[in-house]
Amino acid sequence: MQDIKTPTMSVSSEVYSADGKLLGRYFKENRSPVAFKDISPNLINALISTEDARFYKHSGVDFFSFATSVVATAKGDKRGGSTITQQLAKNLFSTRKRKSQGFIKHIPVFRTLVYKCKEWLTAFKIEHLYTKQQILTMYFNTVPFGNNSFGIKTATLKYFNKNPNEVTPAEAATLIGMLKGTSVYNPIRYPARSLERRNTVLGQMEKYGYITKAAFVENTHTPLNLDLSFVENDSQGDSYIRHAVEKWLDKWLKANDYDLYVDGLKIYTTIDSRLQQYAEEAVDEKMKMLQKRFYNIWGKKAPWRDSHGVEIKDFVLKAEQKLPIYDLLEKRYKGDTTQIQAYFKKPKKMKVFSWNGERDTTISSIDSIKYYAKILNTGMMTIEPTTGKIKVWVGGIDYKHFNFDHVNQSKRQAGSTFKPFAYLTALDNGYTPCDKFTDKPVSISYMDNGKPDVWSPNNADFKFSYREMSLRWAMGKSVNSITAQLTEKVGWDKVVQYAHKCGIESPLKSVPSVSLGSNDVSVFEMVRAYSTFLNKGNKIDPLLVTKITDQNGGLLEEFTLKTEKVLSEEIAWLMLYMFRGGMEEPGGTSQALWEYPGLWKKASNQIGGKTGTSSDFVDGWYMGITKDLVTGIWVGADDRSVHFNTSESGEGSHTALPIFGRFMEKVYADDKSGYQPGPFPKPWSKITKEYMCPSPRISVDTTSADSLSAPVDTTQVVPVPVTTEPEIKN
């Protein structure tokens, strides 16, 4: 009786954006419960007239109906005798599933009698505790309609894009008709059968006086009129955000004993649907362009290369061996590599990712491996540091085909985007943005795992200008030699310490090259760490979820921002000033942003940032900072041996930066986005360090590349003067 009083019904949990848009669902059974008042009388009448005409006259079991069904079955006219209440008992308590059968499943006739007794007893209990109206409501909320649709609301939306209170008699009859066999009478797969069954239900409705003869005729001559747009357009399937939220909530769910897939939670995230859309559009636009560039560079050549540019001959074989099916094939063919390779070479029908949508094709497994290995991917995240709210989460180019999240799961070499932590360490330990170092060769001796070693970094073009440069100029221009000298002065252990202090959680190998981004980190960590500077020196614990309610709207948990003071306001502001050097200093590596006029519709707008490229152009990064937001973007192939081959094609300024530029153009173009261009904040406290030290103008720059070791061509640069209102010129 206690189970009957509190029946367990799996209800999907829903994830919403900050502005109330449905982002996804978690469900084992796709279900959205409704109240009795929200169910159309057409549905109730169709159900009763077809499934249980004497519903209001019995107490859970209709023995008269059961007896007549037995007689009819004996005569060859097989029909059910279960009442709506009995069917509810089956739906709620799974009385016929294997785990409910025991020994009696082996005794044919006796088995059926026991089933029926179970259903009768349960039905009597249900009728004892609930009104007829409540029974109908529970029935409509539990009954399956095929295509992983449980409950009437899910069904009406799926098949007719309507709520349950809006369906016509014909639509109601179509849905109720499916109950006889959700597969056999599925209106999508078998429209003719469904139409015939629908008209039978309409006939029952006329027979019992629920519709007139005229209404019967009118409705039977109506086509099915399915509207499947809800199925195509909703966001209930898998996505990067949906999985990020699940991971983010993991500890809370375990601590509070909730199951996302059955407890009907409503989860409200920090994601801004406008910004998310603009980010996805920018990623789609620029990644298509980058992929085309990649294909043009390599042509028919294999892009999987070692550090010397030599093709990796066993690349495909190793990729095969990583597949789960390889072990099965080894067992099936007893290690015969000829037969295994024959399997991989055999063409098969499959659906593959394309930049213009999924397409059907016939392709061998080997060609599929080669095809996917060449595809570039990305990870992008945007945060509002003052609130800690994550506004954008783009885990990759397509979740269905690449469900590895490149924001939080993937970790790659940060390249020059890690250099700011060396400059931060210096500023917080006695240096100023105006202190000068000379761009010259440097050799640093250190101990690596107990063994003495020497590190002699090159600049990107393997040249040294021997020019004296301020720290701001050196960081804006991304000069390797000066960064290395600075790291030696402050100590690489301290650089690691400051990176961790700002929010980098990945283990960092403490070596001189740490400042040039030799360690693997995630986009999530980098965005979090950079946010410390815009948040007055307060490290944040980023928020992805603001609150969780139950299915009735009752508040279960509210999440608030947690911060920790790790830098002074002066040092945090000076770092923002340093980041502006990428746009304002001669040869600054962010200056490709001048090519995006939408960023400069207000002359007072200021943007700071840092490009980054790992060795051999494997990873391209851009970390962009505006007065309100911090955005991190990584671009590359999933396999590190697949990459671009020149600075012009593969540097972060040519791969990740364009995505940032296009994204912010879209944000600024929308007056309703809540984010408009403008200058960085004024100092939050007194600045005691010297920082106004304009760099000399130069006409030729040879070290503007940001990569760890890759050579670049000499390029002509027209630098932008250091002003608070930079002119719009390239």
Task: Report on the architecture of this protein.
This protein has 730 residues and is an alpha+beta fold. Among the domains are: 34-231, Biosynthetic peptidoglycan transglycosylase-like (Penicillin binding protein transpeptidase fold); 376-673, Beta-lactamase, CATH 3.40.710. The chain is built from 28 helices and 24 strands. The strands form nine sheets. The chain has a five-stranded mixed β-sheet, with helices on one face. It has a five-stranded antiparallel β-sheet with strand order 9-8-22-21-20, with helices on both faces. A two-stranded parallel ribbon has the order 3-4. A hairpin with a 2-residue loop joins strand 12 (444-448) and strand 13. Helix 2 (41-51) packs across helix 8 (169-177), helix 9 (191-207) runs antiparallel to helix 10 and helix 19 (420-427) packs across helix 22. The longest helix is centred in the middle third of the chain and has 26 residues, at 273-298. The protein starts with a helix and ends in a 14-residue tail after the last strand. Mean pLDDT is 88; it is low at 700-704 and 709-730.
The CATH superfamily of the domain at 376-673 bears the name DD-peptidase/beta-lactamase superfamily
* CATH topology tier name of the domain at 376-673: Beta-lactamase
Report the CATH C-level class of the domain at 376-673.
Answer: Alpha Beta
Strand order in the largest sheet: 2-1-5-17-18
Query: Globular, elongated, flat, extended or rod-shaped: what is the shape?
Result: elongated
Instruction: Give a count of the beta strands, DSSP E runs of length 2 or more.
Output: 24
Compute the separation of the termini in Å.
77 Å
Largest sheet, strands/sense/barrel: 5 strands, mixed
Number of DSSP helices? 28
The structure class reads alpha+beta
**How much helical structure, as a percent, in the residues?**
25-40%
Average pLDDT confidence is 88
Flag low-confidence runs.
700-704, 709-730
Radius of gyration: 33 Å
Name the CATH architecture of the domain at 376-673.
3-Layer(aba) Sandwich
Strand-residue proportion? 5-15%
